[in-house]
Amino acid sequence: MRELYADVIVDISHEKLDKPFQYRVPERLRDKLETGMCVTVPFGSGNKPLQGYVVALGEECKFDPARTKDILGMAEKGVDVEDRLIALAAWIRKNYGSTMIQALKTVLPAKQSVKRLEHRTVERAMGREEMISLLGESGRRRQVAKERLLRELLEQESIPYEWVTGKLGVSAQTVKSLEQAGAVRVVSRECFRDPVELEDGGEQRKELSDGQRTVVREVLADVDAGTPGVYLLHGITGSGKTEVYLELIEKVVERGRQAVVLIPEIALTYQTLLRFYRRFGNRVSVMNSTLSPGQKYDQCQRARQGDIDVIIGPRSALFTPFPNIGIIVMDEEHEGSYKSESSPKYHARETAMEVARLHGAAVVLGSATPSVEAYYRAKRGEYRLFTLKERLTGGSLPTVYTVDLRQELREGNRSIFSRKLQELLSDRLSKGEQSILFLNRRGYAGFVSCRACGHVMKCPHCDVSLSEHRGGRLMCHYCGHSQPKPARCPECGSGYISGFRAGTQQIEEKLREMFPGVRCLRMDGDTTRTKDSYRQILSAFAGGEADVLIGTQMIVKGHDFPGVTLVGVLAADLSLGAGDYRAGERTFQLLTQAVGRAGRGELPGEAVIQTYQPEHYAVVHAAAQDYEGFYEEEIVYREILGYPPVAHMLAVQVFSGVEERGGQLAARLAGAVREAFPDEAGEPWGGGGRKAPIRLIGPAPASIEKLNDIFRFVFYVKCPEYDKLIEIKDLAERKLQEWQTADTVQFDFDPMNTL
Ligand code: ADP
Ligand code: ZN
Ligand code: ZN
Questions:
Q1: Cα 583–Cα 585–Cα 591 angle in degrees, nearest 5
Q2: How do residues 315-351 score in pLDDT, each as one tens digit?
């Protein structure tokens, strides 16, 4: 029998010990030892026994077998919280590629000297009448932050301090000046109190609808049977998903287990948070980016000690050291922010499933527009799919008009505003109702298209949009294919072929020209340099301070504007032209979300989608709010070209201070991969047959070729088997070690964006 060796990390608090040490696994432990387990090993020349964690097992001895020491023993205790997190770090390292220390830092809270944490709340200190008059005064003086806080306090007697300075974006100074004026009181308590307790003593329970009840019943049955699975809850906003989460979590907590609720930070509203507080009181805690490391550590301690049952937060909430997680909820499952942008580039969805596996927990994914990945797995029976169809709050879906911009051009309208949009805007302005104008610039990569016929220049090999580069060449960011920019449209011969240029500022100018005196707010990268300004704009608009809000994708998420009855999407093409395979999916999601912004209140809404490609399936199905129809077409495209989720895709990204050296390294790495894993024709991508095809694409300069003086190159490998891609990553890591390169290489599995 061959020997078994274990890589052991010895002391995780030491930065120095980034590398694992290898030990032999003695015969008696062979069948018991698994990655992530805690072991005792002899360390150093004195063979001092130390605790360590197994991070990998294998048959290959990396050093001198004669000098490799034996593991002394396995820790007797059961798996504890920390062991699970270590095992998770090992899994993340293996599946996403990073150093073990990076992975450990991702999952373990940095140890901090914790001051005794006090929880503060800001409370109302004057009568309502007085407060209202103070509110009016602040309004006249344009003290927006003050106004915002006062307005919130009129509705809610007491608000957590972190929320005031965090989400509400009110500075400590402003709070202080209001305190001095006798309007508010800042109260410190030793532990977090339920901010709602003071108010109305709990929420009225909703009688669940049949659809909701089915989900709760089925998930719980699986949990109780010890066979929890993954569930996808597909339902439009307002269809009662959150209510289902609350109910499920309550039942799981009753069984003595804990719950993790993932919500993208941008989508977490105070309203949602209140619902959790009302249900779980001070047994719930929120994690967000405004917490200091000390506060985060304190929260982890509370979780470890059993002081809380529920944690709400962005993807890192997954690493809360709960002893026995029973359920993980992932709301807005399709959101790109669930993927980490720094190494290890883990995705919270798959990581949640690994956490759930370690705990025996259920995973509930929720979305109005599920990711193609999740829906694909649900269709294949890997996840269980539940659909909630009705909106429980009333309010109907808006009427959608798709406007063909080619037609507008033919009929002599060269403005950014179609005639339909102009007409509806003027109608809203005359009625005093609000409108949103949306420019979906996300992933915008300078694509080139024809304004006469809508033709988009695409890569002949990858079927993604080409983007315009230095010297007027068009380039594909997957395979590096490049061609000159044509002077005339290859489709219709017109000269209207060019890069698409339209900015929010330009739109604002045109709007003011068209409707003099219009009250308009703009939200984009320029106007939201700080978190505070972002909130200020949203709250000003919600407060009715403007008729029109113009913005990029930032405005379609999270915040609810009941006063909005018209949404205009200025050019759906912008996100369609992003040079990556998710462009259609993103466009569908953004359009669906944008359209859904109209008519959330009592008045019915309308939406206008302007586009040069009215026949594009992402546009057609978003206009019809038809997810299923979109999915059916999208998955065919993925199948034909072997894009995820049908196959998996690994991006190998090379960063170098020297252009030539970076390019060479990328080419050399790609060569090594090609040699070890030649492209194989194999079966069709989705076939799941005997031979899985592998295809290497590139290398090519990244879409942003140079950032902060660092040159960036990338190549992609596609293969239906994830494990093959892990092997390729391991091979690349070995080669890099062998070559001793000064440049950085990162791995991105199933990337969300092109580099
Ligand atoms: P989602 O999370 O899908 O957007 P929510 O759970 O927030 O949906 O529900 C939308 C609204 O409907 C909320 O105001 C909620 O209180 C209400 N609601 C949810 N479930 C029910 C129910 N069974 N009966 C009545 N109202 C409900
Ligand atoms: Zn054309
Ligand atoms: Zn290409």
A1: 95
A2: 999 999 999 999 999 999 999 899 998 889 999 999 9
State in Å: Cα 454 to ligand 2 middle: 6
Residue nearest atom 19 of ligand 1, based on CA coordinates: 240
Residue 518 Cβ inside 6 Å of ligand 1? The answer reads no
Alpha helices in 306-371 (DSSP H): 348-359
User: How far is it, in rounded angstroms, from Cα 296 to Cα 317?
Assistant: 10
Closest CA to 104 of 5, 7, 6, 15: 15
**Its pTM surpasses 0.90:** no
Q: Nearest Cα to 496, choosing from 449, 436, 430, 549?
A: 449
CATH of region 399-443+503-639: 3.40.50.300
Does ligand 1 come within 6 angstroms of the Cβ of 239?
A: yes
Q: Domain 648-749 falls in which CATH fold? A: Alpha-Beta Plaits (3.30.70)
CATH says 210-286+306-388 is which class?
A: alpha beta
Mind listing the pLDDT tens digit for each residue in 218-259? Answer: 999 999 999 999 999 999 888 899 999 999 999 999 999 999
Beta-sheet strands, E only, within 570-627: 606-611
Summarize the chain as % helix, strand, coil (round to 5).
35, 20, 40
Of the options 3.40.50.150, 3.40.1440.60, 3.30.420.10, 3.40.50.300, the CATH number for the domain spanning 5-106: 3.40.1440.60
